[in-house]
Design a protein that fits this description.
CATH topology: Rossmann fold
Strand order of the largest sheet: 2-3-4-1-5-7-6
Structural class: alpha/beta
CATH architecture: 3-Layer(aba) Sandwich
Number of domains: 1
Number of strands: 7
């Protein structure tokens, strides 16, 4: 069994914000697999499907970004998953809008949701897909920026990036992280 976690914030207020690109990618993966998200006891929306005969869980934590690890830890413990079974998709201010980076492991790089997951699971050995949201304008606060919507020009770029991120996430488990990095990192 494999777990793909898309990070974001719950509720309509946040649906189209920069911080929710992980949720957006998870929704596209669910569409590709023909599955729907349902509420769970893990403080998350969960969708169950399969890829090449292996069970795939999609998870959208409903704990708000900075506490994402609570939901992820609950799912990981319930399904008895190891770090090698997990992929996390999230926003990254250090990448320009439209950029995608797959990594096999590493630090959270300042992303608080990922930091909470690493802390509560006790490992940095987690595969991840970082989606670029750009830097805040000079003088803007990072918290305000990540909770702001994308511009129309940025949405044009995202319309190409998000389906690519969904494909990349499935490729990480179907083809391996190295092959996915070689094909999708941009």
């Amino acid at each position: 069994m494999k777990l793909i976690v898309g990070l974001g914030n719950p509720g309509p207020r946040y649906e189209t914000t920069r911080h929710n690109v992980g949720f957006m990618a998870a929704d596209l993966i669910a569409d590709k697999l023909g599955i729907d998200f349902k509420s769970s006891k893990h403080e998350a929306l969960i969708a169950e499907g399969s890829l090449n005969g292996e069970k795939i869980l999609l998870c959208k934590p409903q704990t708000y970004m900075n506490l994402s690890g609570q939901a992820v830890r609950s799912v990981v413990q319930w399904y008895k998953l190891g770090a090698e079974d997990i992929l996390v998709i999230y926003d990254d201010m250090d990448l320009a809008v439209g950029r995608l980076r797959i990594r096999a492991s590493g630090s959270a790089g300042g992303q608080k949701g990922m930091a909470n997951i690493i802390q509560l699971l006790g490992t940095e050995q987690l595969k991840r897909i970082r989606l670029g949201i750009g830097r805040p304008p000079l003088g803007s606060q990072a918290a305000d920026f990540v909770l702001s919507p994308f511009s129309e020009a940025e949405w044009e770029v995202l319309r190409e990036l998000l389906p690519k991120a969904a494909e990349a996430a499935l490729a990480v488990f179907a083809d391996g992280v190295e092959a996915a990095m070689n094909k999708y990192n941009c």
